[in-house]
Design a protein that fits this description.
Length: about 180
């Protein structure tokens, strides 16, 4: 029994060292990132917004982000846990597609970007694809009396390229895009 206790104690020390080194590497790596591992806070019109958390935009004058299965409540992050063969889920997605097509009638039968009708695993994804933003460009241009070219240029300027040009897709932060849209003259 004494041998087992000594072995367990040694294993505990080894695991503490391994986990400790891992935590130091992760923490140190986060400090290299632009936000240094902290939330990106944007102050706009006297309000504080977190750019890392999806926001809800209902007005037709704004770009809409991904749907949220938690009603954009960061305290209750989570997905719907319904798979692609679940009839309720398919009905919900079809309703979202129908609503999106009603909001953007000028797009006709154009392919609807998947992120505009499906929630992310966290329910709080702040980004959409460039394609998702371009899908909404004509509606925004019409609602704001701007040219589609102006909106497309804004989307292009707000598009974040993959990390190091390799890791992840291009994406557009919907909050930042809508703030830039408000600032567009």
């Amino acid at each position: 029994m004494k041998n087992h206790i000594v072995s367990a104690f040694r294993l505990t020390l080894v695991m503490l060292a391994v986990v400790g080194i891992y935590l130091i590497i992760v923490y140190g790596g986060s400090k290299v990132l632009p936000t240094q591992g902290n939330a990106e806070i944007i102050n706009y019109k006297g309000q504080k917004f977190y750019a890392n958390i999806g926001q809800e935009f209902k007005s037709e004058k704004y770009f809409h982000g991904r749907p949220s299965s938690v009603n954009y409540n960061a305290a209750g992050s989570g997905g719907s846990n319904k798979g692609p063969s679940n009839e309720d889920y398919l009905e919900t997605v079809q309703k979202r597609i129908d609503t999106l097509k009603l909001q953007n009638p000028e797009m006709g039968s154009t392919h609807v970007p998947v992120e505009l009708v499906t929630a992310s695993g966290s329910g709080l994804d702040p980004d959409i694809s460039e394609e998702g933003a371009l899908y909404q460009a004509k509606r925004i241009a019409h609602m704001r009396s701007l040219s589609v070219e102006q909106i497309n240029n804004l989307i292009k300027n707000q598009t974040e390229k993959p990390f190091l040009g390799l890791f992840g897709p291009s994406k557009v932060n919907v909050l930042k895009l809508n703030i830039a849209l408000d600032q567009l003259k």
